Automatic annotation (TrEMBL):
This is Uncharacterized protein. Keywords: ANK repeat. SMART domains: ANK (SM00248). It comes from Amphimedon queenslandica (Sponge). The keyword ATP-binding does not apply. Gene3D superfamilies: Ankyrin repeat-containing domain (1.25.40.20).
C-alpha cells in the first residue's frame, strides 16, 4: 500500500486485491467503509470485491458494516453486479 493514497483508496485497493490486513490498516487510518471511488463509477470497496469474486474481502467488509445496498453512480448495488456476473459464491456471501 502506498502511503500517498488516502485511507479510502487504500481500503478500496486492499478489497480489490483480497488483502484483509491492508483493509484493517486502512480502517485504522480512518477509511470510510463505504468510500466511493470517483474514478470507477463511485464504486465502494464492496463493489470492487464483489466484481473480483473476493469472498474473504466481502465477508470482512460486511462484518465491518459495509452497506450492501449502497449504489454506485448509476444506482447499481454490488449484489446486482454479482448477480449479473453470475458469481454464485459472491452472491451467497452477500445475502447471508
Amino acid at each position: 500500500m502506498t502511503d500517498s493514497l488516502t485511507p479510502g483508496k487504500q481500503l478500496y485497493n486492499a478489497a480489490r486485491d483480497g488483502n484483509i490486513e491492508g483493509m484493517k490498516l486502512a480502517l485504522s487510518r480512518g477509511a470510510n467503509i463505504n468510500w466511493n471511488n470517483p474514478n470507477v463509477g463511485n464504486w465502494t470497496p464492496l463493489h470492487v470485491a464483489a466484481s473480483r469474486n473476493k469472498v474473504q474481502s466481502i465477508s470482512f467488509l460486511i462484518k465491518e458494516n459495509a452497506d450492501k445496498n449502497c449504489g454506485d453512480k448509476v444506482s447499481c448495488t454490488c449484489t446486482l453486479y454479482s448477480t449479473l456476473k453470475i458469481l454464485q459464491s459472491v452472491m451467497l456471501t452477500l445475502i447471508i
